[in-house]
Structure formats: C-alpha cells, structure tokens
Amino acid sequence: MSVAQITPARASLVGELAVRRALPTRGRRTVGPWCFLDHLGPATYRDDLRYDVAPHPHIGLQTVTWLLEGAMVHRDSLGSEQLIRPGQVNLMSSGDGVVHSEENPGLNRGELHGVQLWLAQPDATRHGAAAFAHVEDPPRLEVGDGLATLVVGAAMGMASPARPDAEGVALELRLARGTRAVALEPAFEHALLVCEGEVVLGGEAVAPGSLAYLEPGADEVELVTHEGAVALLIGGAPFPETVVMWWNFVARSHEEIARAYEAYLKHDGRFGEVDSALARLEVAPPPWFGSRR
Ligand code: MN
Prior knowledge:
By secondary structure, the protein is mostly beta strands. The chain has helices at 123-126, 254-265, and strands at 5-8, 10-14, 17-23, 34-44, 53-58, 61-69, 72-76, 81-84, 89-93, 98-103, 111-120, 131-135, 140-143, 146-152, 154-155, 158-159, 168-175, 178-183, 189-196, 199-201, 204-206, 210-214, 220-225, 229-236, 244-246, 249-251. Strand 7 (72-76) and strand 8 (81-84) form a beta hairpin.
C-alpha cells in the first residue's frame, strides 16, 4: 500500500473567514487538476460576522463549493443566483472570465463549515465560455459502515452530473469507527483532507489542518477511524501542464494573468458584472505587471 505524504495546510483569511489552505502549499501545488483547496471554518455566524465574499473574477478554473454546515448564495455574471446548503454542489466554470460572489443568505447564528476547491481547466475549455451548475441531490453510496457522496466526477460506479473538464473526482466520506478499504483509480493521484475527526492512513494520523497525498498506482486505500470522521477524497490524472496562479486567476503565463487583471481593472466586458449589493473586490496589480511593457 502506498504511503501518504502529509503536508500541513497554512492558515489564511478569506474576508473575515478563517480558512486552512491545503492546496497550493510549498510542498504540493496540484493533485490531478485540483489546484486550490480551502477548508472553510468551522466558524460561527453573528450579526457582524456574515462571511460574505464580494464579487471577484476568475479565469481558467472550475470552482467547487461543498458545505458541511451553513448556507451561501452564489451570484455570478451569467445571472445565476443559487442557494447552496450542506450536501449540495455548486460547480462554476470560469473559462475566459467570470465574476461571482458568495453571500450570506441571512444567517446570523449557527456554523459555517465547508470546502472550496478549484480545478484547473485544460486548454480545450479554459479560453471558452463560463458556466454554472448546481447539483441538488448528488449520488450517494453506503460503503461498509460509512456513506460516500460523490461531489464531482465519477467513482465507485457513481457518476455525477457535475463533471470536471479535466479528469478529476471528489468524494465526501462520512465514516463511523472502523477500518475499510476505499477503491481508488490507479491512474489518478489522490489526496485526503480530513474535515472532522481523525483518519489513520498508512499508519499515520491525518487530522484537520493537513493534506495526505497518495501517488498514482494504488487501487485502494485503507482508512482507519477510532471515532467518527468526515473527510474529502480528491483525485485526478496528473495535470499535464504547469499552472501559473495569482490571486483568483489560473493560467499558464504571467502575461495571461496580466491581461486578465487589466481587463478586470478596466471593466472592459470580458468579465461582466454581478447583481450584488456588495462592492466588487479590487487588488493591487501583480508584481510583474508594470515591467512587462
Ligand atoms: Mn471565487
């Protein structure tokens, strides 16, 4: 059985929300096409803690939102407005450009807990049109003493209507105490993010705050739990190109990112606008922006 490489996440903030960024880290940039993984919260809503994420742009990626607790309203420049609750999936494809917000639907009590992931888009779609999909009731399967829910992609005989453009899969695993083998696609690299509890993988304990990476070649992985745990298993074919990431942009070169930044700055129509009460996010230009001419 393959031994996991365990990389610590780093603490970050998205607005007022504390997150643990498990991808990218210094030790690992991608897992298949997955290039970004934030573990959101858990955090408690209050009157003055709404955890809104104001409108901001993306290029070259698909965002996956998966909540364990709380709710969000997704709004985007395609005109989409979609409430998401735990157990549902939002998949947004940015292609050449999209702007979206993730807003508090009116909660001032309870917890917010979830993950947001990005998939790098392949060349075939990354310059194409934006799209948004919501999956109300994703496929679920009992696995021994646990429940596997297919977030995106295909696995364990299940296929989600939410399909990454590059070959990739994400499963939520709700595990009781025990030991079980979970099937893997041998051509994929995989990683496990524990959201609640602890999972022992290859003899090493994995808890919230780190990512356990598994290289391709294994057709299953044994997961041991001493108490209940909730984890996210992601996988995909190793991404054939090196992605360049800055702010909310995924590309192949600094020049592509500079062009996207300039288009957003100038409201030039590439990104469109979101029908939101929140002012859109702005950032200082990338460090190489002024020197490119
Ligand atoms: Mn976003």
